Amino acid sequence: MPFDYAPAPESRAIVDLDSSYGLFIGGEFVESEGGRTFKSVSPATEEVLAEVTEASADDVDRAVKAARRAFTETWAPMPGAERAKYLFRIARMVQERSRELAVLESLDNGKPIRESRDVDVPQAAANFFYYAGWADKLGHAGYGNDPQPLGVAGQVIPWNFPLLMLAWKIAPALAGGNTVVLKPAETTSLTALAFADICRQAELPAGVVNILTGAGETGRALVEHPDVDKVAFTGSTEVGKAIARGIAGSRKSVTLELGGKAANVVFDDAPLDQAVEGIVNGIFFNQGHVCCAGSRLLVQESVYDEVLSRLKRRMATLRVGDPLDKNTDVGAINSAEQLAKIRELSAVGESEGAQRWAPSCQLPERGYWFPPTVFTGVSQAHRIAREEIFGPVLSVLTFRTPAEAVEKANNTPYGLSAGVWTEKGSRILWMADRLRAGVVWANTFNRFDPASPFGGYKESGYGREGGRHGLAAYLRRSDR
Amino acid sequence: MTTVLTPTAGVDEATRSASSLRQFLHGLPGVDQVGAEERAATLSTRSIKTTAKAYAIDLAIAMIDLTTLEGADTHGKVRALCAKAQRPDPADPSCPSVAAVCVYPDMVPVARAALDGGAVKVASVATAFPSGRAALDIKLADTRDAVEAGADEIDMVIDRGAFLSGHYQQVFDEIVAVQQACSGAHLKVILETGELATYDNVRRASWLAMLAGADVIKTSTGKISPAATLPVTMVMLEAVRDFRDSTGRQVGVKAAGGIRTAKDAIRHLVLVNETAGADWLDPERFRIGASSLLNDLLMQRTKLVTGRYSGPDYFTLD
Questions:
Q1: Complex ipTM value
Q2: Taking CB atoms and an 8 Å limit, are A327 and B47 in contact across chains?
Q3: How many helices (H) and strands (E) does chain B have?
Q4: Could you give the number of structural domains in chain A?
């Protein structure tokens, strides 16, 4: 008799959704000036969760003005130790409301509750704790004795880790004395709005954090607003390039964290069971909606058959379904649009001659779903080996020698992350020296820590987030 | 570049000589400690509720080797344990009996008499349990003594000293000799993973025992801490899974020591399910060596049926 896990859904009663949401400007929720509304949908069920406002250009202007006022009058002049108190308070409130935030994130984004509960929310809190600690020690961060904030930051974040990316953006900005106007992605506004409530609850001075929901137009109005001093964007390379063009020649400083097509390199002396876990975690974590996902598996030919058979066996145990079920491993694709893109690129993979395989799994009838999929027989020339799919789709390639592995791993316009699997320490260091990627994981994958900088080479963007390095994006070096 | 003997490649030649055995064991893929512990921790977050919990609790009860291995054991104590093994919950005939009663060799006749006619097996530790520090002929005499007294299963210990000093052939030969002395009784080989210290060693010792003919590989004596941890059991489950892929022979696993609550037991069953697979979810293929665990399982079982927790006085102490 098989061991069938009974449904173990996390209760959504803890989430108190309003039917519609305004914009968070100057410390309070306000109505839009001329903006439209749109619906935020649960990708697992297509259920409408709430009506959200699409902020207009006038709203952006109001928010930037509120941020400017808070910057000059309150936040920048405030001693770092005082700013730290607010950040610590926010961090604690994120922890206190962690179950609510996790359920809300899974509802709105489609990611499994196990991940929102064990990764997204604790990591978001950890980022606020980490940067709270820097707020009164900025003179020791390596940017001169008295580094200064840049001013008002316009921040645009993606839908894959809505609350966590918000934390990555807001925590270092605030620690440095900047104020922010942040726009969450249009499909995942709800945890950002819950965070606005946390700011209110923490009695953060009005205007220090402003949250504008909306889509591309709102984002453009924000990054192009003349009174924004600093632009921070995480998202697709295509939009990142447009932003870079849009602000070229202006005085704005910018950091971009863009796409990736990471190589996960498995040598024949790898710890195979853990390597298989790392491959699975690398590409199926968060449905593959991860900019640093290990979407290109490079396996040494001498262990190819063994790795593939172990990988397929492991993939067959992945539990795909209800994001709120505590036993779900792979949740829903975030939107119909993203699902269409994944399907399109997968079809291209097949037509280019790669072999497609997915374990048999029953997908729910409603909502946006795609099974964990692996393509074998992929070559460097295939589009699925070059373009970011941003879904649970793995392309498998092979190599014969370490030098060939490096060459293939680096043969991409991107350079965000890479993984190396070998029991040989010297080879790890040799590879790390040569891989052109911002992060190189050894015998692990998708590991994050607030103290560790993250960011890309080449078309994966520039600037670093996290750690002491992440402060550089929000500080002007002092000569003293 | 180093050549790696994969399990599938070298298993036939592995036992030809001391050096080929050594080469084979050292050619097994390594275990990354951080990754293995992370995977076991992730699996331990599985939420097993309602019907799944009822299934798991009954299966766990049926997998128990109900154990008493004390210097203070008496005939009376062993008879009480045997009664409990056959009918763990006297109030509920639908409650399954455990798999076996596990005792020292001199208590085997008592257990045999108490259990005769029933489905519960008699298991005996042997080979100078728990340290294994005795001459081979004494270990073999110990084994034969238990088998002749009526033991269905023998739980032997490996010579950890020999293993740690790299004398794999000696450990191998000893297991083979004990297996012959078993004359048909089921052989469980205790690795005492708490003394092997690394997961690489656990994997090598698992393969060594399986190659030598173990029917079951067992984590611990219960006398050393740590005993059966989740990652250790997981590494051993990977070993039996890979061994079957290579040889076609299905070896069982016994997790013993430190599993005291229903929650712990269910976590182990989840590991079995998602590591080795459903073929091992059977008392013939997976055992839990325990004593106090049974009462916690019974309390959880009653709670599922009645919706209420009963006090410990409603469950027999042995």
A1: 0.95
A2: yes
A3: 14, 8
A4: 2
